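This part of the workshop introduces the protein records we will be handling. To make this concrete, we reproduce a full record directly below:
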Amino acid sequence: MTETTPRRDPESLYGTSKTKSSQREAFTGGDVPVAVYGLGKMGLPLAAVFAETCGNVVGADIDPDVVNTINDGGCHVKREPGLDSLVADLVDDGSLRATTDPREAAQESSVHVVIVPTPITEEKEPDLAILDTVVSDIATELTEGDIVLIECTVPPKTTRTRVFEQLLEESDLERGDFGVAFCPERTSSGRALEDIRGAYPKVVGGIDDESTRTANLIYDTINSEGVLAVSDATTAEAVKLFEGLYRDVNIALANELARFTDELGIDVREAIEIANTQPFCHIHDPGPGVGGHCIPYYPYFLIKPFETSSPLLSTAREVNDSMPSFTVSKVKEGLNVNGIDLTDATVVILGLTYRPGVKEIRASPSIPITQELSTSGATVYAVDPMLDTFDAFDAQPIEQEEIYDIGADAIILVTPHEEFETIRWEELDEDPDELSVLVDGRATISDLDLDSWTYTIGVSK
């Protein structure tokens, strides 16, 4: 890493009378320092794209290992194409650095981008404690002309009634001295740089017109697809939630339709595929459950904080949360056909992460699947090439090649990683005393002629 060049006196974009072109030149020329708070799997790619655009970014994260890795030119976020080399180059030329002190980052910067987690409690309430802490750190160093951009998903009205009011209360500034806007992250793991740079337009909405204008100018420099400026911050918050809620409800519809497979005696997946050729039909695919850090949580950002009834959102959550148990029920059914009790069975789970090729287990359907199987008395093994630790799962980890030797009675394919394409299913099936049941949760195993009892969610037996 080369020695970082001294930072210039920062310029501001909010409330300035300079022309748009001169403001854009100041930003892309590095005269407007940017702080990105949260350097996780979405925060680091965002910081990197800002840094390649303006050359003056400091990232803040409370994890010293993350900060040290970045400052050494390394990248702790894996399987993001191009990110490791980009971070190395940006750190080397002084465009990007990291700190464990968010107040230090705030002191140096005039653009503050917050992209920290918003978890939910055991009671399904959105937990905004991390956001509150970061906002407080920013407030201590907030100066006139600064703008605070919230990228993390939050319940509607949070930006205006919580973030903005907290900044007013904890800083020495007045309304109109600084800007605040909500600018939702619209990024998927495995394609973060592509998404941030312009796979989709960026959405921005400010707490006032000047905040919206400033956010628009900033993101227009990094997103080739441009910016969609909405009426206000609350509208922008709703846009982000609605994207996720649509998917959760749609998947719930697909999962409920899949339950009719056996009674109707049809391939529901085929029916969905053909139905979707009509331009007004966009049914998603059924599966063993819905995981990830977004879709399973976002419905509660509307269900819990507001008085308006939302029975559809609640029902969709119930349907999707029931799919892991439905998957286990099919394993039991297949074992019973073969005269095997689940308590005496050995079951292998293929794929523990919530999505193929992504090292993320949050809300993965494999978690309740392994728990229910283990509670029922089954011996449970699990294979996942993405993971180094398996503590969240009630299963014994094994390597993929070991599945041929442990005498599995049942195999459940939950997450179809690319590595599973090399599994020799015929070899598993050739011993009549071994594999008896195969449940395919994602319809990714095809052209198999097995003696085992096989079931694909959404496909008639």
Summary: Residues 1-8 have pLDDT under 50 and may be disordered. The two ends are 59 Å apart (CA to CA).
